[in-house]
Amino acid sequence: MPRTLYDKLWDAHVVLNDTSGRTLLYVDRHLLHEVSTPQSFEMLRQEGLAVRRPDTQLAVADHSVPTHDRGQPIEDPRAAAQVSLLEKNCEDFGIEYLSLTGDDQGIVHVISPEQGFTLPGVTLVCGDSHSSTHGAFGALAFGIGASECGIVMGTQTLWQTRAKSMRVTFDGVVQRGVSAKDMALALIGRIGAAGAVGHAIEFAGDAVRALSMEGRMTLCNMAIEAGSRTGLVAPDETTFAYVQRRPRAPKGAMSDAALAYWRTLPSDAGARFDHEIRINAAAIAPQVTFGTSPDQVLSIDQIVPADTTAGRALDYMGVQAGTPIAGLAIDHAFIGSCTNGRIEDLRAAAAIARGKQVAPGVRALVVPGSGAVKRQAESEGLDQIFLAAGFEWRDPGCSLCVAMNGDRLPNGARCASTSNRNFEGRQGAGARTHLMSPAMVAAAAITGRIMDIRTMPA
Amino acid sequence: MKPLDKVEGQAMSLPDSDVDTDIIYPARFLLITERQGLGRYAFHDRRDAPGFPIRPDEDSAPPFLIAGPNFGCGSSREQAPWALDGLGIRVIIAESFGEIFYSNCFKNGMLPIHFNLATVTMLHECAIAGNSFAVDLERQQLSVQGMRPLTFDVAAGNREALLNGWSEIACIRALHTDDILHFETAQRAAAPWLWQGKQA
Ligand code: SF4
User: Which end of chain B, N or C, is more open, meaning fewer C-beta atoms within 10 Å of its C-beta?
Assistant: First the structure.
């Protein structure tokens, strides 16, 4: 029977099936960060267990780390304690930790692909819901809770139930100024924040094949905002070219063997999906969220709807039903996160910011997703473009995406943000978040208003 | 993990849809590295809202929570179920759940139950009316004062773990170590590149 990519990944990792329909699934890769693992290590200690395969684990601190004055002691004593606890736990349990002051530090979902720790065909988990990002490589990747992190460290397995399958096909070619972020938001707007609950999404179609690995990661990253734990893109030449340059990727004969296997992964012709969604990529306009759930999203040329279910959200956001979303004044701009903190995102934003000035009264932050992204951007002079335009140029971390590192917005502040969640309080208690692409955020920072990137004067 | 077999008591109604993990447990409290005593942070930023069922200084709630659709969507943070557990909530009923949150509940001695929209709507009314709720996990039955008993679905493995209070990690190790070794031998042969890690 023809199988989907998801089926193949799943089947290759079944340790056993129980009688109630659960599968004990083997885990090849586990990423750790400081926030979701303290209690997992505590669990191992309580049960007197070692980590079964330390070689399959990689840790980094990203959520609570300051994004300025790197190398200085962390000011917030609780954040400092959390980071040093991760360091100590990794040392005690023999897990590799990428140090905060080292070259390789960054957001967990940005560094793992850079390192070649993320590979096609693997199962990869992390105590973080945006683990779906790694599905861009044709890996079965999903977020888990802290207890499950402990279970993975202790057993290398997890009890899981097979998801249903959904294929989202983006046909055609996107317009200029439209990015993977807009594709993701358009999908979420269409199917809703719970639209893919219980499903593993495979992204397909010409517009997906045309995306770089960065774009594919952006798309899979936001599968969770559509309710799916898993987003997938079939590996192809774009994938292999990216992977082969990475330090931890298989080399030599191993690489050939791996490649031969990876080529067998794409869904078979005729494979059946439980749900099929088709989207005309050419019709997607730049997207902006107006509410407090990622599915409360509009094309930039649309009017805020007078939808009663969004009433509370509109109040919170201070947005008027019946008014255009374009033109809304912002006072903060954030470019970064595991959704849009990669080199391509910074290039897109810098192209807009070049030779211009951030609007008076707007505070704009650029936070590269990793040390490697930061160095690359600096070698291309992007940091100078941002600094000259009045953006702050920071050290890598999650920063304003989750606002637990000291970067936090004041009550009522309105922020154009490249991150993935516009939940109440996400960027600070009472702060208002509008999600959009890096180019759109840069344009909002420059003009001080949410605007259509397609009409931005050069 | 504490076992869950029978639970009786009042229910709290929280009908909003898409109550995400940032609402259940705001990110700024994620710097806390313990898992006990988080009840007072649950719904921290929502408690001032008029009509919200828990007041700002409270750290306990009735054992049943009747929630809106897509409850617990968003992040994987297990602090969300820990905080609800800290309030004394044992059973959460909704039309649908965020998936990671759903599985996190079972790891922490809490029972999430799905019903269809019409049933959940009735349960909200019963909760607001102050009717008493009782769950019998062994029989997979929910009894609510003034309603006919309802049967619910729960995966057998999850049910067993809850009933016995089993730690999953100990269970897997006790029952399946040989299966895991067997899998590993096969994978080493088929995909040797996955066995070349730094420490391997
Ligand atoms: S950047 Fe944001 S979404 Fe990504 S891992 Fe960090 S906090 Fe989570």
Answer: C
Does ligand 1 have an atom closer than 6 angstroms to the CB of A337? yes
Nearest CA in chain A to B78: A145
Any idea how long chain B is? 200
The predicted-structure confidence for A358-383, as pLDDT tens digits, reads as follows: 999 999 999 999 999 999 999 999 99
Give the residue from B32, B82, B100, B167 with the most A CB atoms within 10 Å of its CB, the best one to mutate: B100
Could you tell me the pTM of the whole model?
0.95
Chain segment B67-116, per-residue pLDDT in tens: 999 999 998 999 999 999 999 999 999 999 999 999 999 999 999 999 99
Read off the pLDDT of each residue in B175-185 and give the average, rounded to a whole number.
Answer: 97
Q: Are A208 and A173 in contact (CB under 8 A)?
A: no
* pLDDT number for residue A446: 98
Q: Are strands A275-280 and A164-171 parallel, antiparallel or unpaired?
A: parallel
CATH of domain A5-161: 3.30.499.10
Instruction: Evaluate whether B21 touches B74 at the Cβ level (below 8 Å).
Output: yes
Q: What is the DSSP letter of A296?
A: S
Residue ranges with strand state E in A107-237: 123-126, 140-143, 157-160, 164-171, 199-204, 230-233
Q: Are residues B172 and B77 in the same domain?
A: no
Specify the CATH superfamily of domain A286-455: Aconitase, domain 3 (3.30.499.10)
A197 SS3 class: coil
Backbone angles phi and psi of A196, in degrees to 5: -120, 20
